[in-house]
Fold this protein.
Amino acid sequence: MVHLERVRLNRDWAESDDFIVGRALDSDLAVKMKDRGKTVRWHLDAERGVATPEKPGEHLTKYSVPLRPMLGCVAVAPNVAQAAPGTGDSGRYGGNMDFNEIVEGATVYLPVSVPGALLYVGDGHAMQGDGELNGNALETSMDVEFTVDVIPGKRIMGPRVESATHIMTMGLDGSLDDAFRGATANMAQWLTEEYKLTPSEVAQVLGTSSEYKVSEVADRNAGIVLKINKERLKSLASAGK
Amino acid sequence: MVHLERVRLNRDWAESDDFIVGRALDSDLAVKMKDRGKTVRWHLDAERGVATPEKPGEHLTKYSVPLRPMLGCVAVAPNVAQAAPGTGDSGRYGGNMDFNEIVEGATVYLPVSVPGALLYVGDGHAMQGDGELNGNALETSMDVEFTVDVIPGKRIMGPRVESATHIMTMGLDGSLDDAFRGATANMAQWLTEEYKLTPSEVAQVLGTSSEYKVSEVADRNAGIVLKINKERLKSLASAGK
Amino acid sequence: MVHLERVRLNRDWAESDDFIVGRALDSDLAVKMKDRGKTVRWHLDAERGVATPEKPGEHLTKYSVPLRPMLGCVAVAPNVAQAAPGTGDSGRYGGNMDFNEIVEGATVYLPVSVPGALLYVGDGHAMQGDGELNGNALETSMDVEFTVDVIPGKRIMGPRVESATHIMTMGLDGSLDDAFRGATANMAQWLTEEYKLTPSEVAQVLGTSSEYKVSEVADRNAGIVLKINKERLKSLASAGK
Amino acid sequence: MVHLERVRLNRDWAESDDFIVGRALDSDLAVKMKDRGKTVRWHLDAERGVATPEKPGEHLTKYSVPLRPMLGCVAVAPNVAQAAPGTGDSGRYGGNMDFNEIVEGATVYLPVSVPGALLYVGDGHAMQGDGELNGNALETSMDVEFTVDVIPGKRIMGPRVESATHIMTMGLDGSLDDAFRGATANMAQWLTEEYKLTPSEVAQVLGTSSEYKVSEVADRNAGIVLKINKERLKSLASAGK
C-alpha cells in the first residue's frame, strides 16, 4: 500500500488540449470534433485554488475549475511472466489509472508481484474531470511525499483506493462493460474476505451501497471505480464480532 | 419537462432480493452467485430515515441504508413509428431509467414525440445503489406530485435531469460503452445549444468538469449519466453575454 | 420450426443506400462517411444471377454481386409479459435478424411462446453482405413458401438455423460481445441436450469446430452466429449410441 | 509482407484443454464450465489429415477434426515509443492474432515501424476453431518457411492477410465491438487507397461484399476479420483504368 502524504503543485501552469478521445465519441460528435487537438495552456492559481485557461475562447473568459492535484500513475511491476507494460497501460498492478481521487491523503493498494515491488508514481494532474476526455488532464509538475507499507499474505484482484470517506475498487479493462465487471468482482472479494460477508450479504450490500463512477476512457484500458461509503461498512465490521 | 414536487414513501416496507444481474458478473462471481435470488424484505423507518433488512444475515444485523425515495420510471410515448416499448425498456423517450437522482426536487426533460406526450411515472424505489445490481431496488409504494411544462421548439438527444446542483445527461444503450458515448454527445449538445460553446470550448469544459456515474445495468439498456456542476456553468452563461 | 421451401425474387430491382451504420464506424470513418446516405437502386438480373447498381460510380461500372435471396425477418410473438417488439427488433423470438443464410432450403427454429405462435416473415433481401452495413440490404419483393412444424417439449435459448451443411445458433444482444456470449451458450445448450455432451466435451467440440460470423450490426441488437459443420456432428451422434 | 511458403507439422501430437475463456461465457455457461481446464492431448494423423483426442470422452470416440496448420503469432516490433508487447498481445504490429487463415500460402501484411522490422513468427496450431475458445488451440511444433518483401511508402491501419481467394483486414481491440470498427476502417482504407473508391463506393462495396468472422477472443485483444472475395475486386480494378 502507498499512502500519499503530500501531493502539491510546484509550478503555476499546466498543459492540456481540446481534443476528445474516440471512446467518448459517437458518429455525430466525431464529425463535430474532427479538427480539434490543439494544446491549451492553463494558469494554476494556488492561492485561489483554481485553474483558468490562459487564452480562453469567448465563452470561457470567466471559466475556472478547482485545483485538485492527483497522480495519474501509481504502479508496481507486474509478475515477471508478463512483458513490462508501457507507461500508458494499466491493470492489476495499477499503472496509468488516471483516477481523480488518487489525491493527497489517499491510500492505493497494489499487489506485490516481484521482489522489491518496483513501485513508481508519476503523471501529475493539477485536476482532471472524470474520464480524462481530452486524453490529457491539466498535466503539470508536482512535489510528492508518500509512505509505503507491505501487508503480507494478502491477495487482491485489482487496484484498490481508500480515502477518508470511502473504500474503492477499480476495474481496468478493454471496455467499460468489462471494467464494470472487474470493479464489482474486486469489491465482492473485499467484502467477502475483510468483512466475512456471505454471497447473499454481498449482493444486498452491493445493491444498496454501490457508487460507480467512470475513472477514465483515455488509455488502452477504460476504468470503472466502485465506491462504498465507510459509514455503511462500520455496521458490517461491528456486526460480525 | 416533469418537475417532481413530492416523492414520498407511503408504507413501511419494501421488497428487493439478493441476486446480482449478469452484466455485473465476471465468470468467478457468476459461480459464487449462482444460487442467489431469494426475496429480501426491508423495513422502512421514515422517522429515522433509514431502511433495514427485516431478517438480516449474521453480518448485516446492524446494516442500514439512508432512505432516498426515487422514481425508476419516467417516460413519454416514443414517436409513433416505433413499437410501444415495454415497461422495462428505456431510450430517448425516458422509460425505466432507474437513476437514483430522479428524486423529489429533480426535473426530468423528455422529448415530446406524440400529441399529448402520454407521460407516465412509476417504479417507486425507497432507495437504490448505483447500477441497481439486484435487478430490483427497494421496491415500494409512493405518493407523487409533479408539474409538467412544455418547452416549445426544443430538441434533445436523450433524457436530461436537473437538480439543485447539477445538470445531467443520460446515455441509455445496449452496452456501457455506447451509453457513455450517448451521455457525452447529449451533454455536448446541451453545452453547444444552451451555452453557445464552440467545439473547442465544449471539449475543454467536458475535460475539466465531467462527472460520470453508472445509473443502472439491470435492464435491457445500461445507463451512464454525465453530470456537470452548475457552479461551472454560471461562468459560461455570464461570459457569453 | 419454419422450413423455407422457396424464397424467390419477383421483381427486377432493389433499393439500398450508401450509408454505413454507426456501429461500424470509428471516429475517422465517421468523418469520411458524414455526407453519405443517398438511395442506391440495383438492377436484379435473375437470369445471370447477379445484381448491379443502376447508376454506378466511376469505379463500380463493372461491379456485380451474386443474388442470394433471403428473409431479414422471421419471428414468432414473444411471451405475453413482454411488450410487442417493433419490426426492427430481435431477440429470443427471432425478429429482424438480417442473417444472410436464412435462404431457400434453410430451417429456422424459434420458441413458441403464445398460443398459435403468431409467426410472421418478411424483409426480403435480394442479397446482403455480413453486417448489413448500409442499414439496408438490397431490399426487394419476394415469393415465399414455407412449411411449419411444431416440436413439442423443446426449449431453446435463442434462434437457431439449420442448412444442408451446418447447424447455427444466433446471439442477438446490445453489443457484439454479449451477442457472442449468447451464440456460444445457445450452441452449448444444443450440444448438451441433443448430443448429450458433457461440459468437457462441449468445450473440446466448440474449441475445434466453431465458425463464428457477424450477422448484422444495423439494428438495435447486433448479431453473432456460431456455425458447426454437420460432418463434425455425425461422429458425435453415432458415438453416443 | 510475409509470405508463408510452407507451414507443416513435424510431430504427431498437440496439446489443448477443455476450458472456455471468459469472453465466451455468459453467467449460466460460466457455472457449467467452472471445473474445466484439464489438458487434452490430441493425436495428429498427417496421412489422414485429421486430429483426434487421445483419450476421448464417451461421446467423442469418433470425433476428428481436419488438420489445418497455422501460425498464431506473426509480428514485427511496434514503434519504439511503445513498450515491447508481450507474446500474448496483439495490435497494429500483428502479434498473437490467432487467426486460423494464417496458413501455408497466405500473405500477412504488417507495418514496418523500426529499422529491420524485427519480424518474428511462432505459436504453431495444428488447427483452431474460430475464437480459440479453449484459450489454446491444438498447440504443436512446426516447420515453417517464408519469404519477406518490403513495400516502400505504404501505410496500413492494422494487420492484413491475403489468401488465394480473399483480401482480409483485421481489427484487434479490447472488445469485439471495437475490433469490428477497426476491421471495417482498415478495409475502407484498403479500398480507398488501392482501388481509389469514393466514400459512397466504399459503402456500397462493403455493404454487399463483406464477410466478417471472429478470429479470436482468447487473448487481451479480441479479433474480428473482414474478408472480401477477390472476384468482387477484379471488377473494381478493371473499372478504374
